[in-house]
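Standup notes
- DV: blocked on the single-chain target, sequence here:
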Amino acid sequence: TVVSLGHREEALACRISEMLSAVFGISPSRFKQPTTLSVVANKASVALLFESLCGTGARKKHLPPELFHAPMPVVEAFLRAYVEGDGHQYPNGMIMASTASRKLAEEVAWLVLKTGRFSSIRRTRQSRLGRIQGRAVRLAPVQYTLYWFDDSSKRRWLREDARYFYVPIQK
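- DV (later): unblocked, structure below
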């Protein structure tokens, strides 16, 4: 099992290592790569657990089913952590997060809706090759970007009356 983080996330890498050690009784290793900080747990049973809960590879990621029945504080905590890891919050309160997994994008959108906020998903085709820090990398052919506002009152695109919500639909 490998958890990849940014170089500035040393504190998070320590926390992940501590949690893996406490929960699974293992001693994970940490490695600095040119583009990431990795936490590695060399235990097949841990890898199989995470694979069954979350999928493997960028395009096959998904959320554990238990998250959809979790109490609201757990859902809110998950969304905050997800945005911290794979997203961004702008000063105006808009949140954006991207993934190569359509299923993950739809599942996160469902959780956002469960919190009383509306999200939108933009599907964007992208080049199969890209560059990260000067290094050639393969990219997923499609990227899904979610947008929502932290404050549910900022639904600028949404219209409602006493009976309905009106959501714009585009081709």
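- Follow-up: The first strand starts at residue 2 and ends at 5.
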